[in-house]
Structure formats: C-alpha cells, structure tokens
Amino acid sequence: MTRRKPVRCAGAAAVLAALATFTTSAAFAQLSDGKLKIGVLNDQSGSSSNMSGPGSVVAAQMAIDDFGGKVLGQPIELIFADTHNKPDIASTIATKWLDNEQVDAIADVPFSSVALGIQNIAKARNRMVLISGAGSSDLTGKNCNDTSFVWTWGTYPYANGVVGAVAGDNPGSWFFISVDSSGMLKTVEEATDILQKRGGKVVGLVKHPVAAGDMSSLVLQAQASNADVIALANTSSDLINTMKAAKEYGITGSKQKVVGLLTFIPHVHAIGLADLQGTMNTVSFYWDMTPETRAWTTRFRERFKGQFPAEPQAGVYSAVTHYLKAVQAAGTDDAKKVADEMRKLRVNDFMTNNAQVREDGQVLRDMYLMQVKSPEESKYPYDYYKLVKTIPGDVAFKPRAESECPLINKPS
Are 130 and 149 in contact (CB under 8 A)? Predict the structure, then answer.
C-alpha cells in the first residue's frame, strides 16, 4: 500500500499566522505607548522616608516582578522621584511625568497636602493615582474623583479606632498637638467629632510646622491644660520629638494619657517600648499578623537591607498589584476604564482580605486596633504589637451617608 504524504494547508497556516499577528498587535495597541509606566512619588530623604521613601520603590518593584514584569504583553517600567514633602515640587514633578514622560499611574504620595494637589493634576489628564502614604478624608470626600484611590489607611478610621479605645465610657477632656497640615487637621476634626458624640470635650489645640524640632513649649501647654488625654496628630520626627518631650517633662506615666493618632511601626521602634507600652493605635498592616504577612515581609527585607516594612510600603505593593490586575482585565491603560475594573475586583493579597473598593476610591479594608507590648512581652525584633480587635472595613471608615464625595450613592 502506498502511503500518502501529509497535505499541508498553506491557506490555513497563513490564516493562523495572520490571526496570531493580529492578536499580538491588538494587545500591543491596548497600551497607549507600548508600555505601562508607574511613578512612585514620595519623600526619599526626609522625615517620612522611613515610612515610604526607597522602601515604597522596592515594594512597587516587587509587585511588578511578581506580576511577571509585563502586562498585556508589554513591559512595565518603574520610576521614582523625591518630593521633599513640598506640594509645589510634587506638582512640578507630576505635571512633567504626565505631560512629557507618559507616566500612566502615580503611586504612594505621602502627606495629604501633596496628595490633594496630585489628585487634581492627574484628574485633568485622565491618569491614575494610587495613594498609600496619605489618608485625609478629603481625598475620598470633597476632593474625590473617579481615577484616584486611597489604598492603605485613613484619618477617619485611625481617629475612630484610637478615640473609641481610649475614650471608652468616660471620654474626659482632650488636648490636641497637631502638625499644621490639611491631613492632620482633618484627623483632629474627625477625632473631635467622634469624641464629642461620646460626651467628651476638647480643651485645647496647638499647631506646629512639619519637622518643627523642639516640641517643649507645645508639650508644656498641653501639660498645663490638665487634660485627661494629650492626643498627638503628627507623625515621623515630629511625633518622636513630641513623645520624647512628654517623657522629659514627666507626662509619660502620669495621670495624663498621651496617645498618637497616627503611629506607624518605625515610630514605635524609634521611641521604644518602654515609653509606649500599653498605648493603643490603629493599623492597616502589621508584619507579624499572619503567615502571609510574615512571608511577604521576609521577601521585602531581603530586598531592602533587612528593614521591616511600614504600612504605606505594604500598601504600595497592594495598590500596584491591584492596578496591574485591573489593566489586564480592562485590556487597556485608559485610566477610567481601568478604574472601573479596580472597583469591580475585590482586593485580595497578603495584607487584604476580600476588600471592596468604594465609588469614592476608598479601599474598605479591615483595620486593627493594636496595643504596644511591654519590653518584657517582646520576644524578637519588631515584636511590638498585640491585637486588641479587628474593625471590619464597613465599620472602620466614614459611613456612606456622611460622605462629601459626589460619586457616592447615599442611602435614601
């Protein structure tokens, strides 16, 4: 029997090749300039660099690497710049990035005064903002827009968690020391509202500039007020210096309680457990909570000089990862289409459990009320917190009915 030679169908092969070429070309065309470009904008060298800074760049690169380095078949590029915590410098960089350097998304953006300006610049250009380092309620309130997201924390849940825990059934009198910035003053406003609803009263407020240095005069005013609670609405070096002054003047351990409304783990490390033991603070992420957070922290430390991650840095990884998933799902880098996908997709990662992204761009993640351990309770490096309670995301954040964001559909 004569064996027949296989017949090659040149026409079918040509069709398949053309289809493959079309599919590949279509995927390339879905990204406006043949690549996706993300810019991390933060304080690289100043007072908040240990909470975001170079560590946020590392976290963003980890997210890109874990995603495979490409989206829709095209490369993902990461750049970064230092704002020096100055809104004018940040705005200049962001405008240059978006107008001349084809940056598709800006990530991190600590300090609410910086973030509020970046939101407006990006909105005018239909670009994405993934805010991890700032948390003013105005970002998802009256300044909200459909291509901006607040990913990691917020002034409302931090104030809500700490005031609720410290005030209890006998709120007493409170004195606030606050940095003179929109984000922190919003925290004071929200803490005051929560406090007054519980029957407490505010007996004083003093403000200081960022990186003020000596806090002695402010602490002495707070001490002289005889307030039951001295609440600190500052962060970074300002918080550390205020806590040190409180110890120097004998307030720490006295009848007056000193609480921080925005305390990140680098602050606890810098101040020390001896002076912070027993104090409460609200967090969105703690490295030692679960096997997943510990595993991610191990990888982060391997890439970042052995340092432990702060909340904004973990949030950058989470935000960039979710953004890349949404770009893949939307099939485009168009910010509004990607933003729609980001709201459709639930957020699930090492620090987030099935969180909803609300219309105003707020990630309704669970928050955690923590108590700082005593030196005796701490058994290994950065073993600083014990969990008091989990605050569900739909409870932790400002209620829908109280939102000033026009994108929110309020209950009737």
Answer: yes
Q: What is the pTM of this model?
A: 0.87
* Cβ count near 22 (within 10 Å): 10
Q: How far apart are CA 157 and CA 191, in angstroms?
A: 10
pLDDT in tens, 23-65: 444 444 478 889 999 999 999 998 789 899 999 999 999 999 9
For 196-251, what is each residue's pLDDT tens digit?
Answer: 988 999 999 999 998 898 999 999 999 999 999 999 999 888 999 999 999 999 99
Residue with tokens 């600083």: 384
Cβ neighbour number for residue 219 with a 10 Å cutoff: 25
Residue from 200, 203, 186 nearest 142 by CA: 186
Phi, psi of 225 (to 5 degrees): -70, -20
Instruction: Give 372-386 as a DSSP string.
Output: EPPTTT--STT--EE
* Cα separation, 59 vs 317, whole angstroms: 5
Alpha-carbon distance of 52 to 58, in angstroms, equals 10
β-pairing, 70-71 vs 105-108, is unpaired
